[in-house]
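fyi for ur records
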Amino acid sequence: MSNKWVRSISFNRTNTDDIARLKLIGNKSFSRFVKSLLDAEIKRKEVLAPDTSKADTPQPQQGVIPPTTKPSIYDIHQQKRSERSYQTKPVLNPMLKRD
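which gave:
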């Protein structure tokens, strides 16, 4: 069993953009060409977003206090609604009613 995973890509020979792409590839190994583009993209992302999970020097932990806001009318209504105890009425089905 092979460890390779094959992904296909299609080109339209009548599409001008695809014609330009095919000319760019030329007689190069398509697999090698795509892998080099992927490697370049990985390196570009590493440069743009360096690993910031570990700081060089320990930083003090500062807690951020969220700003206090007045509760909205919707929040107050929902709170009052949840505090109420509703009595459920029996469902009346006229088809089951006997005279």
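Residues 16-48 form one domain. thats all i got for now
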